[in-house]
Amino acid sequence: MQRRHSLQEIAHLIDADLKGDPNCLINGIMALQSAQSGQISFLDNKRYLKYLVSTQASAVILRAESLKHAPNNALVVVDPYLAFAKVAKLFERVPQISREIHMTVVIGKDCHIHPSVSIAPYVVIGANTHLGEGVVIGAACVIGENVVIGAQSRLASHVSVCADTRIGERVIIHNGSVIGSDGFGLAKENTKWVKIPQLGKVQIGHDVEIGANVSIDRGALDDTIIGDGVKLDNQIQVGHNVTIGENTAIAGCTGIAGSTHIGKNCMIGGGVCINGHIEIVDNVYITGMSSVVHSIRKPGIYSSTHSTQPHREWQKNSVRFRQLDQLAKRLRKTEVLVNSKSIDD
Amino acid sequence: MQRRHSLQEIAHLIDADLKGDPNCLINGIMALQSAQSGQISFLDNKRYLKYLVSTQASAVILRAESLKHAPNNALVVVDPYLAFAKVAKLFERVPQISREIHMTVVIGKDCHIHPSVSIAPYVVIGANTHLGEGVVIGAACVIGENVVIGAQSRLASHVSVCADTRIGERVIIHNGSVIGSDGFGLAKENTKWVKIPQLGKVQIGHDVEIGANVSIDRGALDDTIIGDGVKLDNQIQVGHNVTIGENTAIAGCTGIAGSTHIGKNCMIGGGVCINGHIEIVDNVYITGMSSVVHSIRKPGIYSSTHSTQPHREWQKNSVRFRQLDQLAKRLRKTEVLVNSKSIDD
Amino acid sequence: MQRRHSLQEIAHLIDADLKGDPNCLINGIMALQSAQSGQISFLDNKRYLKYLVSTQASAVILRAESLKHAPNNALVVVDPYLAFAKVAKLFERVPQISREIHMTVVIGKDCHIHPSVSIAPYVVIGANTHLGEGVVIGAACVIGENVVIGAQSRLASHVSVCADTRIGERVIIHNGSVIGSDGFGLAKENTKWVKIPQLGKVQIGHDVEIGANVSIDRGALDDTIIGDGVKLDNQIQVGHNVTIGENTAIAGCTGIAGSTHIGKNCMIGGGVCINGHIEIVDNVYITGMSSVVHSIRKPGIYSSTHSTQPHREWQKNSVRFRQLDQLAKRLRKTEVLVNSKSIDD
After folding, report:
1. Is B312 exposed, middle or buried (0-12, 13-18, 19+ CB in 10 A)?
2. How many helices and strands (H and E) does chain B possess?
3. Mean pLDDT throughout C281-295?
4. Are strands A261-262 and C279-280 parallel, antiparallel or unpaired?
5. Of residues A5, A174, A206, A240, which has the active-site annotation?
6. Model ipTM?
7. What pairs with residue C249 in β-bridges?
8. Is C3 exposed, middle or buried (0-12, 13-18, 19+ CB in 10 A)?
9. What is the DSSP string of B170-221?
10. Residues C155, C159, C163, CA angle at the centre, nearest 5°?
11. Series of mean pLDDT values for 10-residue runs along chain B (345 residues)
12. Of C240, C261, C277, C311, which one is the catalytic site residue?
């Protein structure tokens, strides 16, 4: 039962200028180099221009500047990537949701579960928890006491949501993520560590997406807060009392230490480490694998990533780096000598 | 049923010098900027001094040097952070433990489960495993064969404890962590990898805390050993045959490659990578996101972290870094020239 | 019921030149410094040569060059590490597999489960999934719809395998790993993020091993592909549409951003970050904690890792790094001055 959509229909959906046959029927979407006849594709990143000429796709979504290279029907738009997002949605296979609570689900007392909620097998839910309309809980999730999950939110399998967590509407949390575990709070008494009770909770706004195997710690006193529209990739660590502003997107493997505040509309690359107790303002872009030690107080692009070199070259330069302060002092001395001699002359 | 404690009582607990009303009743603890009347707060990190003057807290724990800024009752101590840890414990909401084994728990043969143990739903326990007095196992944990977990230890949900693991007393393991999976042991035979059986186990001492989504591999031959009082944050990777000395604390996202030995009382920042087969002595402090390639044989602070710069500045410097060996050679040549001319003069 | 093997038998297994008593019986394998009488050990890494002289092992596997230091029986081979892998296999405790499907397992309709399959308690399997001969599924795994898992593959506990995933034969997946969660695909519409449906799947070849708490995203359009014989350590993140060539091995905590292609027979260290949309050819070796920003088009060793220095030294050099472009320009100016003066002379 394949879905088909005419190019005219698709052009209308994405507000495109259609060059070609409006009645051409499209039954799927695929990358340029893999697309078959009957499928639509798109060109956004110039790296893939080489695949445009020979694509087998029946139509391609692209910018006006690439139209001359299109071998077949074309849909011209301003933002091909956004258009791709919308067209892909036409061909999404939406999993059938059972709208039932599996007989194996263990539910604590005084929970409020909306009748439309779907809960897969072997889920455990603590007392006094609220699940809103249309919530979907994947298999083997464990949800603590006093949790609130807003309407239309979906948890994949193996998600841990600890006690007191507040989750907004239309939130997606992928497999294996942990929301609300204790923050890393320790005080030293003589040589031993004393655990600081973590009394805060996690608050997650609306329309947030959280990847797989992410950890978000509960606050020590105040709460850890993830703003509306925030998008987190996989394997991210968010320390206690961190706040992340609206619509900020963070790529995989990034770690954010405790009590740091990140602004709105930031984009943070993968593998970035962000120090604790600092502030990053709105509209900051941090390139992948950078290390943010100090607060960033002005919007802009920030980096601290060395890219790989052939090992021998890297080694030579790296050894020199260890002498860099000495080299700078020697340069200063040489400058003084040369200049004094210039004056002498 | 709110708990209340008089300032006198609290001052006694933390051995503080009380400035103000000893009968003032405290019903909670909160950060300076969020505290309400009736709550106590604390000032440790100078960054937060700005919030002291206007705090609504009924009392603040602080050092003598900050006393002059306190707007209300004050408790003067030497270490406000440690005092905070102790006071927070007064207001901790201790979850009610059922002290029962849920009817869904699957337990292998020949296990020794102390009658005081609490096990949540859908836990699976292998044969010949011992759980000590007061142990609490969270929902959906899977514990292998021949495991020993000492008295008063607590596992959150979704923890995997693989066969043969030894866990001490008063250990806390947070959600989604994996203890005792196979180490990454491979030998090459022609072009293919041969798996090296991982015959060792994991030994965890007393009073250890392990964060969420941590992985600790079993040893290849000898055991992987986590010493008493070690504290691990979230998303940490500990390779096979690593040993970590007593009371060492490691922040999130740090990775430790196989067969490395880390001393006692070390503090290791977040996002640090530590090479395999090296040794780090006691009392070493490594700043966040550093890369430890070689053994560290003297106590002290070690770093290799560049902090972010505005991207254009970083790029310019980074390009020069790739020329650094050449730059150093050119400097040498110039020095020789200048000096020979000096001699000539 | 201890297994025992004569040295003769072991020498034959690993094609070794036996120096000593062929009838000596070996009952285990252990590291040089921990081995007891009756056990065999090995010397591969020169760092451990110091333990050879005093080892209590009854026999040691080593290279010819180390034979003169061997205190007891010796087995001389070309590759002691590979030989160790094979001998360790003799002493592996193979866990008893039940070859049954636990009564608590929930299986969707139209699944094909080979009669030899073993499934532990509280596993959930979606509709239309195929499990091949001898497959072993650990406790609390969740497997989606339309999944195929090839013969003799083994999943440890808490593994999530999302819908449509294809897994080859003899694949091992360790605890807590997530295969096939949505990729991080977002397009911006005004200030808000639009989710890009992730329509591809994950394909995993034969003889692949995947560590604990790994995340591998499904493709956006095309599939994410893990080639035959690939070995992934713990805590690795593989973005959508990544392809990894045959027999490539990747150490822990490494992250690979979307649409990147990695060749065959590569070795990638721990904590490496690899940018998206790039290509790494076959036979590339990347040292730990490097950052790969651009494509690597020639085989070889690549690095971008600074190793830790004492903090004060690092700080001095790091400050100079921020002046590096200025330093280079000053050097140029000085060279010009000196050379013009040389010409003048």
Report:
1. exposed
2. 4, 39
3. 96
4. unpaired
5. A240
6. 0.94
7. C231, C267
8. exposed
9. T-EE-TT-EEEEPP--EEEETTEEEEPP----EEE-TT-EE-TT-EEEPPSS
10. 100
11. 88 96 96 94 92 95 95 96 95 80 97 97 97 97 98 98 98 98 95 95 98 98 97 98 98 98 98 96 96 96 92 91 89 86 58
12. C240
Residue B149 tokens, joined: 């977990």
- Closest by Cα among A247, A254, A261, A187 to A215: A254
Structure tokens at B344: 């000539």
Structural tokens at position B341? 């001319």
Q: Which of A281-285, A331-335, C2-6 has the highest mean pLDDT?
A: A281-285
Nearest CA to A240 among A276, A207, A274, A211? A276
Chain B contacts of A213, Cβ < 8 Å? 176, 213
CA nearest neighbour of B101 among B133, B141, B140, B137: B137
Phi (first) and psi of residue B80, to 5 degrees: -60, -30
User: What gap in Å lies between CA B48 and CA C110, rounded to an integer?
Assistant: 61
Contact (CB, 8 A) for C257 and B277: no
Q: Which position has the token pair 């394949």? A: A2
Cα separation, C204 vs C201, whole angstroms: 10
Give A-chain residues touching C106 at CB under 8 angstroms: 102, 104, 121-122, 139
Output the pLDDT for position A252: 97
3-state helix vs strand vs coil in chain C, percent to 5:
20, 30, 55
Tokens 């790039």 locate to C278
Spatial neighbors of B42 by CB under 8 A, at least 6 apart, are B29, B32, B60, B61, B62, B80, B81, B83, B84, B87
Cβ distance of C303 and A314 shorter than 8 Å: yes
3-state secondary structure of B69: helix
> pLDDT tens across A166-196, in order?
999 999 999 999 999 999 999 999 989 999 9
CA–CA separation, A181 and B165 (whole Å): 23
A344 — pLDDT class (breaks 50, 70, 90): low
pLDDT in tens, A231-288: 999 999 999 999 999 999 999 999 999 999 999 999 999 999 999 999 999 999 999 9
Nearest CA in chain B to C247: B192
Q: Which residues of chain A lie closer than 8 angstroms to C316, CB-CB?
A: 324-325
Q: Give the separation between CA A116 and CA B313, rounded to whole angstroms.
A: 55
Q: Spell out the residues 6+ positions from residue A44 whose beta carbon is closer than 8 angstroms to its own.
A: A80, A81, A84
Torsion of CA A226, B159, C202, C237, to 10 degrees: 60
> What's the gap between Cα A132 and its chain centre?
24
In angstroms, the CA B158 to CA B173 distance is 10
Query: Which residue carries 């973590």 as its tokens?
Result: A198
* Nearest-angstrom CA–CA distance, C242 and C219: 8
CA distances from C223 to A174, B111, C182, C259 (A): 19, 45, 12, 10
Has B240 been annotated as catalytic?
yes
Nearest to A320 by CA among C330, B325, C325: B325
Here the tokens at position A44 are: 């956004």
Nearest CA in chain B to C42: B221
A223-259: b (≥16 Cβ within 10 Å) or e: bbbbbbbbbbbbbbbbbbbbbbbbbbbbbbbbbbbbb
How large is the angle between the packed helices A80-90 and A7-14, nearest 10 degrees? Answer: 130
Residue to test with chain C: of B157, B178, B285, most C Cβ within 10 A: B178
Determine the pLDDT at residue C343. Answer: 52
**How many CA atoms lie within 13 Å of A269's alpha carbon, on the beta-carbon side?**
25
Q: Specify the pTM.
A: 0.95
Chain A residues with CB inside 8 Å of B47's CB? Answer: 277
